[in-house]
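Problem statement: downstream parser choked on a complex file, so we are re-checking the raw output for the cobalamin run. The parser issue turned out to be on our end (a line-ending mismatch), but while we're here, posting the original submission so the record is complete.
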Amino acid sequence: MADDIYEEAAQAIITSDRAAAEEVAQRALDQGIAPGEIMALGFVKGIQEVGELFESGELFLPELMMSADAMAGATEVTNAALEGAAAEVKGRIVLGTVQGDVHDIGKAIVIAYLKANGYEVSDLGRDVPAASFIARAKEEGADVIGMSALLTTTMEEQRKVVKTIKDEGLAFKTVVGGAPCTQRWADQIGADAYAEDASDGVKKIDALLGR
Ligand code: B12
């Protein structure tokens, strides 16, 4: 049953079992479940629960890191299934996790979705300084700069990038995402869009570029 496999996926993350996570991801794909679906309804539920256990002090950093590793394994399997799905190139995007922040699981999912939906994406990695977002966007003639931030302390980096674009009169559109970000935050810093998850990211970028 589909519900069971979603639960199995969540459990593989909660129990930090990378091998199980990869096996469940592959089995879900073999059963015809879409990569985004097993991610959103299974693995992401698991890592959210891990985050809650960490916050309430029931789980510690080494366990959180092992769960993150299991999540990375699942993401590799589902992202591979998204590869090569698109035919036309709709635009160029540079995307990274902001300076001071090493959370990159969500970013990897967003990149896979964008690629599968026809975008050329340069992955700038994590802990990316504001100046590097701008320099790479210029170098690559990007249409959009995407910034991921998972910490309330690193969200400010998104503001720096948006401000530089405005100060220098550059044409890049900006999209922000990550757990602490909201539409309100995007409005506050003057970003062009906020996306709640990977598929929303594709929708928002399509809309920004009139695709
Ligand atoms: C996994 C994890 C880690 C892993 C990260 C591994 C990795 N390679 O990414 C490790 C163990 C390294 C880690 C470390 C830390 N973490 Co941490 N971590 C998490 C956890 C549990 C899950 C994050 C995650 O992967 N979620 C799953 C993905 C799929 O979701 P997502 O990232 O939100 O991305 C989706 C959307 O947001 C959106 N999106 C994201 N980015 C973008 C960008 C664009 C452009 C678009 C369009 C969309 C988009 O699309 C994605 C896909 O749908 C969260 C809890 C949580 N609720 O988020 C805590 C959490 C973010 N961490 C937290 C903390 C405190 C830390 C540490 C400071 C812990 C410590 N004491 O050292 C360090 C900080 C390290 C650093 N400098 O960055 C806090 C942050 C609190 C705060 N308010 O700032 C959280 C909320 C946990 C908690 N509840 O306390 N962490």
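For whoever reads this later: Residues 101 and 126 are 7 Å apart (CA to CA).
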